[in-house]
Structure formats: C-alpha cells, structure tokens
Write a structure and sequence with these properties.
Length: 247
C-alpha cells in the first residue's frame, strides 16, 4: 500500500474543501485506487467538518500535531489526541520539523506518539536531517537517533508510518539524489526493523515532491509514499503527483 499525504500547514478555510472534492473524485475513479490511500492534514479548525464530509469516502483526515498528555487540561491552545479523534480524524503527524524547531523534544515526541496511539490515531512520525548534519555526513546517525529516542517496540507498528523529510528539502525545490535516497531509506528501514522485531512500518518521503520529480522516487522500492506540503494545496498539483507516479 502506498500513501499520499497532503500537509496543508497554516492554509485553508471551509471553502477550501473544493480542492479535496476534486482530489476525491479523481481518486474514486482511478483504476489504481486500490494501490494507495489519500490522507489530508488540514489545520485543526477544519478537521471536524472535513472529516464529516469525507466520512464514507476515500479521503482520510488527520491533524498536523497533537498535545502529549491529558484528555482535557488547562493548557491554553493545546489539543489532545482524544479531542482530535472525537471529531473524526484518523491520523496525526507528529515530529514535523516545524514543530521540532518550535521546541518539541524527543521526550515530548515519544509521549505524543504513545498518547496518540492510545487514542487510536495512526501516527505519521516525521524525521529528517538538517543542512549541517548533511554537510557533516551525519545524516544516518541523526536519523537513527531521532527514531530510537522516540519509537519503542511496544508501540503498535500497524498504526505507525514514518515520514523521512530532509529539512533542507522542505519547501526549497531541492531533493536528494537517487543514491542518497536509496541509502537513507534503507538505513531507516534497518533501524526500524531492529526496533520492531524484523518488521518496518511504511516509510514515506517528504520534501519538495511535485508532479515532475515524483518519477525519480518511483524507482526506489523502499519508499512507500509521500508527505506533500506545497503541492497538496492545489488539486491539480496533487493529482499530477499521483498520476505521474502510476504512469
Ligand atoms: C512538508 O512541510 O511536510 C513538506 C514536505 O513541504 P513541501 O512539500 O512543500 O516541501
């Protein structure tokens, strides 16, 4: 199974559902539809209405983050996985570099993953090296650290997806070479298999994916799908990625 996950970040109002309606109607008629899933993570404000709208349809809705503990609490602006699940989301991103740079530590991420899983959300756990780590050839060790500080063998593997997003690639138009991608994704799966008794959850790639470069990723067997930022805000660009991937 492949995954095409659109991360809307701080984008969208109720009307933006038109973008998803177009993606949904492409998806419902696509002859390849049994091979992949489409998940969109809109801002919190839109989760409930979008999840209701797509309840019996192909697209699943997720959140972009969640709080690490408590069903309810006095923490201003925090939203718990329990609240997210209750309004119909099925997935949540955790560990996106935007949130890591705002202070999410490995300890917090571990608590978030654990609590999201407890609330029956599927977790899309994001990892990725920064520019300095890449320049200093520390990519593999950085990725190993990010994974092993957070994921534990007791976590339910069937509810975990890992998204590899090199930070230097997000929103920049730059992507890794094919060889780099083969090495990193193989390494990530090896680290995951060490944790999960020989099994690996799906590993996605994220960072400047578009309809023109998606064919490069298709050649790398270890990549199980994509986390798509910028291009997920346009139905045409998002559909082009799927179309060109299966061409
Ligand atoms: C992201 O922020 O998760 C992302 C992959 O963004 P983009 O596709 O715009 O690089």
């Amino acid at each position: 199974m492949k995954y095409f996950i659109g991360n809307w970040k701080m984008f969208g109002v109720p009307n933006s559902i038109n973008i998803l309606n177009k993606i949904n109607s492409y998806y419902s008629k696509d002859k390849n539809r049994s091979k992949y899933r489409v998940i969109i993570t809109p801002p919190y404000t839109l989760i409930e209405s979008y999840a209701k709208h797509f309840k019996n349809k192909k697209i699943s809705i997720g959140s972009q983050n969640c709080y690490q503990k408590d069903y309810f609490s006095s923490n201003t602006a925090a939203i718990s996985p329990y609240m997210i699940k209750k309004v119909g989301a099925r997935y949540t991103l955790i560990g996106h570099s935007d949130n890591r740079s705002e202070g999410d530590t490995n300890e917090m991420l571990k608590a978030k993953v654990q609590f999201a899983l407890k609330n029956n959300l599927r977790v899309v756990f994001c990892i990725g090296e920064n520019k300095t780590e890449k320049r200093n050839k520390k990519t593999l060790s950085a990725l190993k650290r990010q994974i092993s500080k957070v994921l534990e063998k007791k976590f339910r593997i069937s509810n975990i997806i890992v998204a590899y997003e090199p930070i230097w690639s997000i929103g920049t138009g730059k992507i890794p070479t094919k060889i780099e991608l083969e090495n990193t994704t193989m390494h990530i799966k090896k680290v995951l298999k060490n944790i999960f008794k020989g099994k690996s959850p799906p590993v996605l790639y994220g960072g400047s994916v578009d309809g023109n470069n998606v064919e490069i990723f298709r050649e790398i067997r270890e990549i199980d799908g994509f986390l798509i930022g910028g291009a997920s805000k346009s139905s045409k660009k998002f559909i082009d990625i799927i179309k060109n991937y299966y061409r």
